[in-house]
Amino acid sequence: MEYDYIIVGAGSAGCVLAARLSENPANRVLLLEAGGRDRHPLIHMPAGLARLATMTSVNWSYYTQPEPELNNRELYWPRGKVLGGSSSINAMCYCRGHARDYDSWAESGCAGWHWDAVKPWFMHSEDQQRGASELHGVGGELKVQDLRYHSPLSERFIEAGVQAGYARTDDFNGPRQRGFGLYQVTQDNGRRCSTAYAFLRPALERPNLTLLTRARVQSIRLENGIARGVVATVKGRQQSFEAGETVLAGGAINSPQLLMLSGIGRPDDLRLAGIEPLHEMAGVGQNLQDHLDICTLVGIKGKQSYDHINEFMAGLRYLLTRGGPGSSNVAEAGAFVASDLAQDDRPDIQLHFVPALLDDHGRNRMEGYGMTIHACNLRPTSRGEIRLSTDNPDQAPLIFARYMSTEFDRRMMVECARLGRRIFEQEAFADCRSQEIFPGAQHQDYEALLEFVRRKAETIYHPVGTCKMGSDDLAVVDPQLRVHGIDGLRVCDASIIPSLVSGNTNAPTIMIAERCAAWMLENSKSRQSVPPAAA
Ligand SMILES: Cc1cc2nc3c(=O)[nH]c(=O)nc-3n(C[C@H](O)[C@H](O)[C@H](O)COP(=O)(O)OP(=O)(O)OC[C@H]3O[C@@H](n4cnc5c(N)ncnc54)[C@H](O)[C@@H]3O)c2cc1C
């Protein structure tokens, strides 16, 4: 079967690509997604996210290899395996990161990715509920809205931040990122606004867009350095698809896996996995970066948190009004803070406040009532990698996150733990907080807190960098996301991010897909999508 474009993966990036590329009726576009349709109601009711993180029907549910600096624990890494990908299971916080993040991409060899160049593309996708402004767009597919409901405890968290000496902000994507405030969310009037909902669903009306779900791509068809299409298992049957151009949008774990399965990577590593090397490329799977996160948990005196909430009543209220706790993204409030270790004027710690006790991604259901502050190191210096142990495409790749392998990252994580505790100690929580559960009173000095971090730190779900963009030895794609040395192949998802942004990664991934689609359309004969004037 022949197409102009094949897109592998209908996640945050893949759905945007499919929508944009199919705007031109002359383009025949095939979108292949390993997961199923996004029919489960918990995907669409925001508070359902607490369950999605562990639901294997919509989740790849990966684990890292034993992490040497985290007591050899194998950390749980949820990733979306369903239409919308991780945007169908994520916490919906809308954050772009800091302008300087993108300037540093450009300085590192990614020409054309400085803030002034990427800003119009964030705005292009956006439909900002508060209206258009210098930094926000309206009329785009992605609804960016204020929460319809948040807990009074989230207000206390913001107040506590102010009492601790930090600014209050009502927009983390405004002129100043730093401060304490409520997150804006990717929601459409209380309903999750995944990229499947926002971009793909309307585009599926078009006859030139074909979507196959339960279609797992196994390898790229390479002929003399040209990508000709893919081989996939569709509902259990192996099929071959041909295209003028193939785009991998399988995410930061699966895109490098697919390249390696297709013989693209480090020859020695490929041979070890039983794969014949076809194209040597040192950077495939390297440069893995993620936001490591540590939670501070305290109990509360009353029962006003979301713990043990009456799910039936919350669900009913949500069905009737699209409001109440069911419409909450749970991580309602947050902060961007510059610690004493900050190396420039950017915040280096991000907080997510959860008005409930949250341990181990919600897998450890705790007794009692309480609150959680997540704190993560925004710009880690540790680097991990993705490798293959076998040539079997159905086998999960090996994830070596190598968290905290630098002294700087260890010190940052202790700063994170200290900050969470300091916020809970403020007057704003004085009349409602009870005992500290984690880290616990016995963990006070640096060594004790580091020991606590080693025992409890987890991912906050932002792996990137494994097919990085650039022109150095580890770069896999060029600044237009074309795989170096191979014709007809691009990678477009969070894996191309060269260095982590200072914030959550969904909006940046959507921006990346917008740009990639525009370049692809520019290169195709008849151009339809008009890029924003300022870009
Ligand atoms: C639990 C969780 C919470 C998060 N919270 C937030 C948040 O609040 N805000 C935020 O901005 N970011 C958040 N993120 C991160 C953000 O959602 C991701 O960075 C982003 O979705 C990544 O987009 P992607 O396109 O790279 O990959 P994905 O969205 O993961 O998409 C990859 C898609 O490709 C498919 N696929 C993979 N391999 C194959 C194959 N071989 N064949 C066919 N299909 C394949 C997958 O099934 C998936 O659908 C969160 C992530 C998680 C997991």
Characterize the structure shown.
The chain is of the alpha/beta class and 535 residues long. The chain has 2 domains: 1-91 and 192-288 and 463-535, FAD/NAD(P)-binding domain (3-Layer(bba) Sandwich); 148-182 and 292-377 and 404-456, Cholesterol Oxidase, domain 2, CATH 3.30.410. The protein has 13 helices and 25 strands. It has helices spanning 12-21, 41-44, 49-52, 99-107, 115-125, 152-163, 195-203, 251-261, 267-272, 311-321, 407-424, 446-456, 506-523, and strands spanning 2-8, 29-32, 62-63, 76-77, 126-128, 142-146, 179-182, 184-185, 187-188, 191-192, 209-212, 215-223, 226-234, 237-248, 264-265, 279-280, 292-300, 333-337, 349-354, 370-377, 385-387, 398-400, 433-438, 458-459, 489-491. The strands form 7 sheets. Strands 1, 2, 11, 12, 13, 14 and 25 form a 7-stranded mixed beta sheet that branches. Strands 7, 17, 18, 19, 20, 23 and 24 form a 7-stranded antiparallel beta sheet that branches. A 3-stranded mixed beta sheet has the order 5-6-8. Helix 1 (12-21) packs parallel to helix 7 (195-203) and helix 1 (12-21) runs parallel beside helix 13 (506-523). The radius of gyration is 22 Å and the shape is globular. The two termini are 35 Å apart. Bound molecules: flavin-adenine dinucleotide (FAD). Flavin-adenine dinucleotide binds next to helix 1, strand 12, helix 8 and helix 13.
